[in-house]
Amino acid sequence: MILRSITLRRTANLSATLLMGGATLLVLLPLIIIFYHIVKMGISSISLDFFTQIPKPTGEAGGGMANGIAGSAIMIGMASLVGLPIGIFGAVYLTEYGTGKLATAIRFCADVLSGIPSIITGMVAYSMLVVPLKGFSALAGSFALSLIMIPIVLRTTEEQLKMVPATLREASLALGVPLWRTSIKVTLRSALTGVITGVLLAIARVAGETAPLLFTALGNQFWSKKLTEPMAALPLQIFNFAISPYEDWHRLAWAGALVLVVLMFGLSLAARWLGRSKHS
Amino acid sequence: MFSTIRKTVLTLALLASVCVAGQASAETLINGAGATFPYPLYSKWFSEYAKIDTSVKFNYQSIGSGGGIKQITAGTVDFGASDKFLSDAELKAAPGKLLHIPTVMGAVVVTYNLPGVHKGLKLRSSDVADIFLGKITKWNDKRIADDNPGVKLPNESIIVVHRSDGSGTTSIFTDYLSSVNQEWHGKVGKGASVNWPIGLGGKGNEGVAGQIKNTKNSIGYVELAYAFENKLPYATLMNKNGKFVEPSIKTTSAAAAGAVKHMPADYRVSLVNQPGDDAYPIVGFTWLVVYEHQKDAVKGKKLVEFLNWELHKGQKMAAGMLYAPLPAPVVKMVEKTIKTIKH
């Protein structure tokens, strides 16, 4: 009787473990398939040219996506310049100053903003900047990207700041340090690694965005010389090349996808590493 | 640590903006957007032209014909491109007079997936319309079988695939169906996106091609270049003169030969179902759309220079990329039109 019960328990345990292990594998499977497929299709087209040349018209060998990589970097950089300070200081306000209804309203708005489909962000930037200024531009693209970054940075930073012990703030305030200085020099500083993790994740998120750039940065097959002109971006080039009928453009698109995925993977890993080193 | 990082970021950003600003030069950038169909050829032209005139760069983005019309009307681009000519209402909506400049011609092919049947299935235009209307439902229908003696057609249902997105290709194809079939004309009509009576939708040429590759007994339509590059089988269609014609550069050009005599001054003309023994029936122009009065003198001058180059030297690159060059009489007409652009 006792023996059978143990066997039964073991069997139940084993089958549950197998079931959950299988479920975990199923979760991982899409990621593995995507990664495997992109590496398989893209690796052969990755060369030095890919990082140093601009795209060549179909039928000509070679060519790369250097302008797209640079364009993405510039626009993400400009979006960060605007989006990160607003997001981080907004979060400081929420945790250190914000009380009552206003803070709740801001949090609610940030959540709504982060839920807005990115194509709509692009349309807003189009109607606010592109149409009045009579032209597509890198500036409009950066504006759209910064709108996506702000709520992500705001909420992750806020979570990190909440984890800073109240005693730290109290100690600083007791020493006569004003609240604004305490917020920046003590609270924000203690939460810094977590904040940077959030920032990296926000950058990884916008790096792959195509929709908000379609009607703002538009894309450029050459190097852009001004921020007020259309600019190339890696996701845009992947999109354009992937839907073309030409094999060599498909190969470039796969290579671009590989670079983008590796970049995002790297950023996520960096974010993880930073997040972990804080606790060790 | 925070201030160090902040300083680094700020310095980098400052450096980046200085670099970008420092690159600014006298070079002119002319922006255009629109049709996807001529994008490969245009990107070739603009890449070649950048070597000829180094003081100007043409940036062309393929956002679709509808998008091209919208953006040139809004004045956010310097030129638009479309596979569908603007309606009178669309022309009126623009803040200035818009000119259509035909650049090349393209063909749309009927492609299919029939195990054991390679390219060259013969189809009458009225039968194509009936298939897309859902009136011919089996591959071994007598009307198809009669035109294809010796071809083993399966007793299977025909699966129709069409574009789900608005497209110039659909515009040309439905224009063709409307002109060969009264019922289609009355019930469905023509346009960049129509209310299809039957069938599955695919996004873009690649979406339609993908669906057809994966679905046995299916039929759909894609651009000529797309079918050639991807080695899709395509049908031989009966034209207005009752001859079966294979799609090619030659038969595409032949379609324009008939239309040349009645070419309107604004080039807003349909090329489907044209007379001529060699004329392939599903053919259309693709146009650049520009303002007659160019606001920016420098850009206007460069644009006119490019149009003249494209009209002569550029035409020679078309056939290699499966676009049909303009017939000589049309080139003569367009020369004059380009002269009317004021800058």
UniProtKB/TrEMBL annotation, chain B:
The complex is composed of two ATP-binding proteins (PstB), two transmembrane proteins (PstC and PstA) and a solute-binding protein (PstS). It holds the Pfam family PBP_like_2. It comes from the Bacteria. NCBIfam families: 3a0107s03, PRK10918.1. Part of the ABC transporter complex PstSACB involved in phosphate import. Residues 1-26 form the signal peptide. Residues 22-307 form the PBP domain. This is Phosphate-binding protein. It comes from Oryzomonas japonica.
